[in-house]
């Protein structure tokens, strides 16, 4: 089985626009970001007055849970939550923006060599969810308008989408987090797509590997593809991601885009 039907087998009306998440849905450049963010946040919490004596496993569970539920939102929200958890443990939190910079510094070290390779002209294939380019081509061929919306800072999303050779497919635009974080959310991008194209929410499809985008598109009445790629092997469904995506409202679950006819069936009318 390639495509698992969780809620609906096909949309009620023909789909006209598609919103994509970026990291983990198209790009694997930031693969492994959780293994940077979670230990860093755990380190911050175990250094607080109450955190010092708390069971480390409990701290890890706490961090994993809030990082996970906020995945797909802008990074700053995970940092705001971290600051709250510091306060709960009688610590004095830093400005959430400082936690965000601390995380980015650590993540940049991990992904720098991937970006350097791509800048030097390496084939982007291994940094893409398998089948991404044929999928985007198929959707454009079927007349869909494509949007990219990411919780990663917009300047990084633009550069990374360009390096991966996918930027031009997004004729609706590429949106990412801004410093002025209150003026961006995936829900806002979805509302803009609906208004700009005079769409009904049911004419919208979403592809995502995170809780937030699946829930937002689902709430708007759209058809949702939960992309549960195991980011290391890149061929199977990651069970943990699958469960989160089902809970968030995914209509179908796919491991990647390797079986294009099964996906095209949902779009071609
Ligand atoms: Mg993602």
Quick rundown:
This protein has 10 helices and 7 strands. By secondary structure, the chain is an alpha/beta fold. It has 2 domains: 4-28 and 128-267, 3-Layer(aba) Sandwich (Rossmann fold), CATH 3.40.50.1000; 34-119, no CATH class.
Describe the structure.
There is one protein chain. By secondary structure, the chain is α/β, with parallel strands linked by helices. The chain folds into two domains: 4-28 and 128-267, HAD superfamily/HAD-like (Rossmann fold, 3-Layer(aba) Sandwich), CATH 3.40.50.1000; 34-119, no CATH class. The protein is built from ten helices and seven strands. It is globular. Bound molecules: magnesium ion.
Keywords for this structure?
single chain, 269 residues, alpha/beta, Rossmann fold, seven-stranded mixed sheet, 10 helices, globular, binds magnesium ion
SSE map:
Blueprint: E1 4-5, E2 17-20, H1 34-46, H2 56-69, H3 75-88, H4 96-119, H5 132-141, E3 145-153, H6 154-163, E4 173-177, H7 186-196, E5 204-208, H8 211-219, E6 223-227, H9 239-248, E7 252-254, H10 260-267
Parallel strand pairs: 2-3, 2-5, 3-4, 5-6, 6-7
Antiparallel strand pairs: 1-7
This protein binds magnesium ion.
- What is the level-2 CATH architecture name of the largest domain? 3-Layer(aba) Sandwich
Could you say how many structural domains there are in total?
Answer: 2
Distance between the termini: 23 Å
CATH superfamily of the largest domain: HAD superfamily/HAD-like
Low-confidence stretches: none
**Major pleated sheet:** 7 strands, mixed
Order of helices and strands: EEHHHHHEHEHEHEHEH
SS elements, strand count: 7
Question: Portion of residues in helices?
Answer: 40-55%
Shape: globular
Strands of the widest sheet, in order across it, are 1-7-6-5-2-3-4
């Amino acid at each position: 089985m390639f495509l698992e039907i969780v809620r609906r087998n096909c949309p009620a009306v023909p789909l006209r626009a598609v919103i994509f998440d970026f990291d983990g849905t198209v790009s694997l450049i930031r693969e492994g970001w959780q293994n940077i963010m979670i230990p860093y946040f755990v380190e911050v919490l175990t250094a607080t007055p109450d955190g010092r004596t708390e069971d480390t496993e409990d701290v890890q569970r706490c961090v994993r849970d809030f990082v996970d539920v906020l995945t797909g939102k802008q990074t700053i929200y995970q940092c705001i939550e971290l600051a709250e958890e510091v306060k709960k443990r009688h610590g004095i939190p830093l400005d959430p923006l400082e936690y965000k910079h601390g995380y980015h510094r650590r993540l940049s070290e991990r992904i720098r060599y991937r970006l350097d390779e791509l800048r030097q002209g390496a084939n982007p294939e291994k940094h893409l969810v398998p089948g991404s380019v044929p999928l985007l081509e198929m959707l454009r061929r079927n007349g869909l308008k494509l949007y990219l919306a990411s919780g990663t800072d917009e300047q990084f999303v633009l550069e990374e989408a360009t390096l991966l050779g996918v930027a031009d497919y997004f004729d609706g635009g590429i949106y990412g987090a801004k410093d002025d974080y209150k003026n961006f959310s995936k829900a806002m991008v979805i509302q803009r797509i609906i208004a700009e194209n005079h769409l009904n929410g049911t004419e919208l499809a979403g592809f995502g590997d995170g809780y937030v985008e699946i829930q937002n598109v689902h709430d708007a009445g759209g058809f949702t593809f939960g992309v549960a790629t195991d980011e290391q092997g890149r061929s199977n469904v990651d069970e943990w991601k699958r469960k989160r995506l089902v809970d968030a409202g995914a209509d179908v679950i796919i491991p990647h885009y390797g079986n294009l006819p099964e996906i095209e069936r949902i779009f071609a009318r």
